[in-house]
Recover the amino acids of this structure.
DNA sequence: TACCGTCCCGTTACACTGTAACAGGCGGGG
DNA sequence: CCCCGCCTGTTACAGTGTAACGGGACGGTA
C-alpha cells in the first residue's frame, strides 16, 4: 500500500496505486497487463472527469503513431471486466475504479453537471433495498447501474457566491 | 380514438390509457400533443421491449413518407420531459412510463437480458438510501438512474426447463 | 390585411459511439 | 519447426445524437 509522497500532480486519482493494483491483479489471474492497457488506465486515472473512448484514443496517439478507437474499446473491455475502471452509462464515458467498494457492494456514482467530477460511493441501505426489490421481483441481477446527475457541493457553493 | 374492449392485442402496455393521460396532461399544461408525438408514444407503448430512436423512426415511416430520426428525437425529448416515456441509459432505448411511481419516487428498471422485457418499479427503501447518500455527500440531484440488467423470473424458469 | 414571433417539423450535415471481420505479430507448447 | 491463442492494427460499417437552416402553421397585434 505504499503511497507516493506526492499522490498525483494535478490528477484527480491515484494513478500509481491503480497501476500497481492492476499489475498485481493480472499476475494473480494470469492476465496480460500490456502497454496499451496500462497506458489506457493511466490516461483515465490522470483525468478528473470521465473520458470517452475517442478522447482516450486521442490522448494515446502520438504524431506518427495513431491509436484507433477500436483498440481503446478492447482495452476498456479488459479494464472494466477486471474492475479497474467503470463505465458511466449516462455519459458513455469511463472513470477509474476507486475500489472503495471492496466488499462487493455495487457502486453509486454522483456525477456533477457543472464541473463534471464523479464521486464513487456505496451505501449499505441502497444495497439492501436493491436486493429486496430484486428478490421480490424474482429477478437475478447481472449488473447494477446507479448514477445520479446533479450538482456537487463545491459547485453549489460556487454558484451561490457568483449568482 | 375508440379503443377495442380488449386493452391491447399483443402489446405489453396500456396504449390507450397512456395516450389518454398524455392528452389530459397536454391540455392541463397548454402543450401540443401533435400527431408525431402521439404516434411516437403509440409506437413505444405498442412494444414489449425498449425501442431505439431509429427503430421508432422506421416504424413511423411509410413507403412514401419517411420520418427522420432527428424528428423522433425531438418527440422523445418532449415525451420524456413530460414523464410519458423513460430513456434507458444502459440501452439507449425508450420505454413507456408505467406511472406506478406517482408519488415522485424515482424509478427502478429491471431489464431482462434474455427476453428484453423491462419492469419499472419503485422502492421506498432505495429512495431513502439514495436520499441519505446524497445528503451525506452534499449533492443536489437532478436526475436519478437505477437500472438493473439480469434475468427475469420467467426466463430463469424457461432456462431451467430447457436445460 | 399585413406583420411578427413562436413552435413544430423536414432536411442536411456532421460528430460521437460501438462492433464485426480480417490480417499480422508474438509467445508458449507440441 | 508448426500450431494455437492472445493481442493489436486496419477497414468498414451500423447506431446514436446534435447543430443549423428553412418552411409552414398559428396566434396576437397594429
Amino acid at each position: 500500500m505504499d503511497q507516493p509522497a506526492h499522490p498525483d500532480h494535478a490528477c484527480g486519482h491515484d494513478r500509481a496505486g491503480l497501476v500497481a493494483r492492476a499489475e498485481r491483479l493480472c499476475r494473480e489471474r494470469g492476465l496480460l497487463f500490456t502497454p496499451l492497457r496500462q497506458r489506457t488506465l493511466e490516461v483515465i486515472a490522470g483525468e478528473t472527469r470521465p473520458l470517452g473512448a475517442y478522447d482516450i484514443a486521442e490522448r494515446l496517439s502520438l504524431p506518427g503513431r495513431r491509436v484507433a478507437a477500436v483498440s481503446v474499446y478492447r482495452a476498456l473491455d479488459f479494464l472494466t471486466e477486471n474492475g479497474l475502471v467503470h463505465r458511466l452509462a449516462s455519459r458513455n464515458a469511463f472513470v477509474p475504479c476507486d475500489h472503495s467498494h471492496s466488499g462487493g457492494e455495487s457502486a453509486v456514482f454522483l456525477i456533477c453537471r457543472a464541473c463534471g467530477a464523479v464521486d464513487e460511493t456505496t451505501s449499505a441501505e441502497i444495497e439492501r433495498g436493491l436486493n429486496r426489490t430484486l428478490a421480490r421481483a424474482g429477478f437475478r441481477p447481472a449488473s447494477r447501474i446507479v448514477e445520479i446527475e446533479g450538482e456537487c457541493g463545491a459547485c453549489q457553493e460556487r454558484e451561490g457566491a457568483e449568482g
User: Anything to note?
Assistant: Residues 52-54, 69-70, 73, 92 of chain B lie near DNA strand D (CB under 10 Å from a C1'). DSSP finds six helices and five strands in chain B.
